[in-house]
Amino acid sequence: MTDRSESSIEDIVAANLAAGKCAATGVVCNIGGDSRISVNGVLALLVRLLDRPLHVRYAQSERGDVLHTSAGTRLAAELLGYAPRVSLVVGLAAQVAWIEQTILSPVH
After folding, report:
1. Over its length of 108 residues, how does the chain's per-residue pLDDT go in tens digits?
2. b vs e for 32-46, b when ≥16 Cβ sit within 10 Å of the residue's Cβ?
3. Among the residues of the chain, which ranges form H helices?
4. Distant-in-sequence, close-in-space partners of 82: CB < 8 Å, separation ≥ 6
5. pLDDT for the residue numbered 78
6. At what angle do helices 88-99 and 39-50 cross, to 10 degrees?
7. Quick check: 40 and 73 in contact, CB under 8 A?
8. What domains sit in the chain, N to C, each tagged with a CATH number?
9. How many Å apart are CA 21 and CA 38, to the nearest integer?
């Protein structure tokens, strides 16, 4: 089963704003979360947040798919003061709320 390092948009934006103020040039920093979660773990979290089952269709992995990813953020921490602040649960809950309010709610 695959797992991924999670990242929140709030953390990514904060890191990019900090990079714009950083004196270092020509440096590449990884930005990411501090934990990993399986795809099934994300699906289980969505079931909990949505309070309904999901209809999931599994397929074969594609050639070249990476099974495990994580971001090494040490350099970003040193240069930008970066540290992930928004957890996957909080970020995903905000995304679900936004979709429900802006896409799924009836137009008034």
Report:
1. 788 888 999 999 999 999 999 999 999 999 998 888 999 999 999 999 999 999 999 998 889 988 888 889 999 999 999 999 999 999 999 999 999 999 988 774
2. bbeebbeeeeeeebb
3. 9-21, 39-50, 74-80, 88-99
4. 11, 14, 15, 18, 29, 31, 73, 76
5. 96
6. 50
7. no
8. 3-104 (3.90.25.10)
9. 34
- Cα distances (Å, whole numbers) of residue 102 to 13, 46, 97: 21, 18, 9
What pLDDT score was predicted for residue 1?
74
- How many other C-beta atoms are found inside a 10 Å radius of the C-beta of residue 18? 16
